[in-house]
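Render Intraflagellar transport protein 81 homolog in 3D.
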Amino acid sequence: MSEQLKFIVEQLNREPFKKNFNLITFDSLEPMQLLQTLNDVLAEIDPKQAIDIREEMPEQTAKRMFTLLAMLKYKPPGGMSEASSFRQGLVAGSKPVVHPILHWLLQRIPELKKRAYLARFLVKLEIPAEFIQDDIIAETYHQYEELVEGFKNIHKECEQLKSSGFSTAEIRRDIVAMEEEKDQLIKRVERLKKRVEAVSNHQRMLELARQLRVEKEREESLAHQKQEQKNQLFQAEQRLQRCQIQLKDLQQAAADEKPESLMKRLEEDIKFNSYMVSEKLPRELENMRKVVQYLQKVASEPAMGQAELRELEDKIRETNTEINHLIEKRMMRNDPMDDKLSLFRQQAAIIVRKKETKVEELQEAREELAAVERELNMKSSQARERGGAELIRGDEFKRYVAKMRGKSSTYKKKRQEIAELKVEYGVLQRTEEILRERLTAGQQQLQSLEAQRGISGFSDTQEELERVSAIKSELDEMKGRTLDDMSEMVKKLNSVIAEKKSALSPLIKDLRALRQEHAELAPEYEQKKTQYDTCSAGLESNRSKLEQEVRMLREETAQEESRYYHINCMREIIESQMQRAADQSKINQSMDLQVRRTALREKYIANTAEQESLGKVLRQQVKQVRENQEPNMRQMKMWKDLETLLECKKQCYLKAQSQAPIGHVIQDVGKDMLVL
């Protein structure tokens, strides 16, 4: 619980909440402040929840929070059986209810934000069936469903694009780089075309080169197909061997199986199924029915206010105190026969709990085994449909790991060689710079000497002539060497293919012998493996049994310790009460009046006398009020009539003032006259 509070306080002190809490201030929050903090966290997830709960009724706040938590798929710690207490605790702002909600929300705010955003569009509107019969409403609802499905598809595509790792800037850079490479390739092709056009019979050479490229591509595709077929053949042989091994195992199991063992296994299955049908499932069904009835009762009752909640809390407290008194009486009675029966009851309860836990573990193991088998079959079928390889197991996986280790060591060596080559490249680059500087200095010196002798540009002209002559000789050699190279290349390819075939033939023979040996050793390996798995499963089951017994003993120890501490606390409370009663009796028996006045009895007597005198005064006041009620009511009625009369006179006077041009009013003593 302390770790949970630390996490909540740490998260609330960060962005975007910035609550500036510590453990003491957070733990001392009032229920209304705690609910406001919870509402702030919900508002961060869904902005529509940003409301001051002081301006809202408690029932509306609870309903709004329940709806949002259900949409976010929050499950209360107690499950459906504690739904009513969870609802009451949330309405009252109880810490044991609100703290787990805050801890759950603050752990997964980004995920819940996404879920709340999607719920705005994916939670469908509920329309009564009688309204759906209208054609316009039905068509509109159908369009609404199509828009929801379209939103789902668009959101999936958006998430896939976000998770793919691509960005628009990188794509633009790649496009620009590819366009530059395209321009460079176009320029190179144009230069090569210009160089080849000068060669005679270049079309024939290009055609032969194209055919050679096509044949090479065809050879690569055939080699790839051959490799794929070899892999498929190898996989088929492996599957066949595994199936043969499984068939042998099944035949051996069927041959070694005795009728007694089969009957024993069937009896165990029948016992388990009969227990499930007669005891476990009816009990669970009855519990579920009680929960449903309780939930229906809660749903049918009107929403409770604060006064009703306080009344229920008071009843719960009274019931708890009665239970504690009954437990104390039972413990004080301490009947030895009941102790023996309680011991037997505890043992029976422990055995029942162990039986239920074992049945649940067996059921879970069966369900897990079925789920794993279904998943394995599905993955195997998907792998077969996609043409993938079978799962690697046993020695194959060890060989694969050894192969990967060898590749890793080779990779490390190559990486070290690359680092050395990089260092050597840096040295050579520096040497090249130095030589270029020397060449530049020598050329400048040569040009100055040519200028002194009057033959400027002689070295450049000589270099140009040598370069042109070298290009011409290369072109001449290329013309005569192209066809010879092509024929020589074809001969080399044929000789290489023949060498590869001759080199592979002894390896194929060795491979066949190794396959035969593997087929002979595989059944023995599978047999040893099954023996090992059986022994391992037995040891594991024994270990789980021992762990369960240790867990049960620890729980019993914890219960006894709590009972011991509870008894000690009750003993200390009773001793303190007895000591207090003895002190009061001593004070009452004392002869000193000053000491006796400090006794609780004297104080209670004085308070009682004071309250009785106050009650007499209040009763006298009530009597006076009842006696004067009728005269006061008559007087109040007369004052109201007088007020009505004066108001009527005021209205008449104002009306007369507004009609003054028609006539005039003559006022005399005690009377008014209107003359027209």
